[in-house]
Design a protein that fits this description.
CATH topology of the largest domain: Rossmann fold
Distance between the termini: 39 Å
CATH architecture of the largest domain: 3-Layer(aba) Sandwich
Radius of gyration: 19 Å
CATH class of the largest domain: Alpha Beta
CATH superfamily of the largest domain: ABC-type transport auxiliary lipoprotein component
Number of helices: 9
Number of strands: 8
Shape: globular
Structural class: alpha/beta
Largest sheet: 8 strands, mixed
Number of domains: 2
Amino acid sequence: MGTASALMLVGHAAFAQGTGDVDRMIDNLKNGSDVRVRTQAALALGASHSPRATPALCAGLADANTTVRAAAAAGLGKLQLGGTECLSARLADEPSPIVKSAIQKALEQVKGGVLPAIGPTTKFYISIGKTTDKSGRSGDGVDRMVKSSMAGAAGSIAVAIAPEGETVEAAKKVLAAHKNVRGFYLSPKVGPIEYGADTLKVRIEIAIFTYPDKSLLGNFAVPLTQQGVSGKDTSSEDDLVKMAAERAMQKFPGIAAQIQ
């Protein structure tokens, strides 16, 4: 979805933070004529926390310049929002030892998962449950998009993401060691994807539970509408689902602050 697309956040006045910057960096990595511009774009995408950066960085692994390819690999490693398949595929064909080393390091980082460290500014420790998918899409692609988008948005808002499959005992130990951090379990639900007169609508609902005990506390929703869509457009559906998931995570701290 390009920057010219007319996006309206239904019930909210602002766009997802940094969307325009990510678009610009993606374009610079793909089309920049200067090696330095493409290299900087790859590194910046790695620090963007946006799942939309992953396919752009994967494409950057095929750049004609070794420095750009190494930067794309480093970006995927820092981003930690997927890319294992493209990194592994490039590793088999990559002629440069320097780039190979960067790819191997990135693979180790990506396989480590999205686990922002609990630091002095961390306020919330969140476990993200499996997405209830009512979108009408097949497979588990929506669940992957929602989880990666929420986790990607967490790093910039003092949220640490619990590892998938964490036991109750392990979670209690983590929270016992960080008395000022509150634990929550978020259960996402993507509603039916709706097409209207030149519009596409996506709605994500988030049920909030205590963690690790999982007692229901409340819920909130993030509806998004994209205008100018005629006919089914799975690419726009993907972008809107990801943006809604990012927005949900960005909105969560304000809601959690109201929960006693």
